[in-house]
Amino acid sequence: MSKSVLVIGGGPAGLAAARALGRLGVPTILIEKDGQLGGNPIKNHYHTLIPRKLKPSQVIGPYIRDVEQNPNVKVLLNTELTACEGEPGSYKVSLSNGEKHEVGAIIVATGFEHFDPRRKGELGYGLYPDVITNLELEKMFSQEGKLYRPSNGQLPKRVAFVFCVGSRDRQLGVTNVHCCRYGCALSGLQGMEIREHYPDVDVFCYYMDVRTYGTWEYPFYWAPQEQYGVRYVRGRIAEITYSPADGRLRVKHEDTIVQRPAEVPMDLVVLVLGMEPSSGTKKVAKILGLAQDPDSQFLIPSEESGSNIVSNKPGIFIAGACKGPIDIESSFSEGEAAAAEAAAFIGAKVAV
Amino acid sequence: MDGHPYGYNLPISEKTKAVPWEEKVRIVEEVKSDFRFKEYIFGCLNCGVCTASCPSNRFFDYSPREIVQRFLEEDVEVLYDMMHEYIWACSQCFTCWIRCPFVNNPGGLVAIMREVAVRNAFEATKDLLKPYGRVLLKVMTTGNQLSADMLQPDFFPDWGPKMADNMENLRAKRLAIPFDVGKSVKTAWEVSLETAIEMYTIWRETGIFEMLEKLDPNLYNVIMDIVEENEERYEELYEEEE
């Protein structure tokens, strides 16, 4: 039995797993296919994270620093898993950089990808510059520090958030029926941020239902309304068009609470993107023979173990958004739980 | 509002109220037992995408979401009432179907409801089909929807005064068209007798003739005269060949 662990993916779940293993004194290899650690939040320049409203540098920064500084953790960037042979306890893994290692256990933390809104043609993304994604809005906040309409650089007067783009939608096939979990809360947060800095900008959220579950209800649903005047309209956006007469967008929907079809002008429309399993998740699932949900293709844990972390392959553990939409802090927890499971599996004598 | 606090704002008609409950249940069950029904309705989040996308919704008191909701609620009274007027505002474009996140097909449900309404000879369907008598006659006897001789000046006043001139000497004008259009004013293109006979067989086997007999006995008689005449001609030809 090899006494080392391979962690695949350098996002929140993978970082948390590698950090915990390093601290336990387990020799760990962390591979990340991008050129930097941190996963989607760092790569896509998230501005503020739900639920604690901290910056990515505050939340993910310490994990990256600890992982990089821990002598037990070997970080390999721009590296992917290419093959895996051998038995549980001594998996022989081949990496894209040519290295081969024998590891006792593997933690898969290959994460998700955001939905490509071009697949919903009726929403006009890629056609009208003022239709942007919530990722682009985050980047606008974090990189440019201001809100503007891409078409003319001006401050928008009316901003609409379109919920569930690429989520809860069988038109895209069985793959996109799940809920993204983060969209409602993030939109509430982004709406508050807009209203806080630009009190004259009207913000509208178009929803089917608002899923700010658990303790997120007040800070990300009630507060945006009560404290910041963000307006919630019930109805899914049917299509987005553009009026050359006034240069503004039109969002078309039915207000299903007051029973009224409407087509209203907007200056900026933000599409709230769903989550899909990343290409890495699908690839690794194939290499390692991991069970996937037949519809969404996310990884699914073994039924026998009862655990949410244990995969169908002994010695392989799954954590974070490779199993389905999840928030960043829960990803950390799952990574840490997977580290404990992996350490137990290889029978590591942990440093106390 | 008549006990319907939202959505279907039309009061339930006196006619519907007068119909025995069992009969209304029978009609709605006939719709639900159609083989397509299960493929046309799954669940509904009341998201309103169908109604927001619906072209008829912009001009009429018609909402595809309402159709789906009433079926899910099994609101027999409203569904029965809808079949008399409400559902006929649907233009059968099926945008509701290609937008619905559940892939429900409200337009398809309407199609089934219409068929049931016709099969059961609802008074409303008779009224609704009246203006289409000429089209129906053409379609059922020749398979053509429109033909040159259907363009008559007083039928299309909105086409302007020039139209009256255009209608004169139709036959000569048709013959002057430099490619083959059958050179007929009675059909848009030529329909062979064999094709017509096959078509009549379909009408007969699928119960379309029966349906028409209930809806419009006069039109049925006119159509059947032509059908029988053609069938006789076909028989004669067939015998000659033998």
Automatic annotation (TrEMBL), chain B:
Keywords: 4Fe-4S, Iron, Iron-sulfur, Metal-binding, Oxidoreductase. It comes from Hydrogenobacter sp. This is Heterodisulfide reductase subunit C. PROSITE patterns: 4FE4S_FER_1, 4FE4S_FER_2. It comes from the Bacteria. Residues 35-65 form the 4Fe-4S ferredoxin-type domain. InterPro entries: 4Fe4S_Fe-S-bd, 4Fe4S_Fe_S_CS, HdrC_iron-sulfur_subunit, Helical_ferredxn. One of its GO terms (molecular function) is metal ion binding. GO terms for cellular component: plasma membrane.
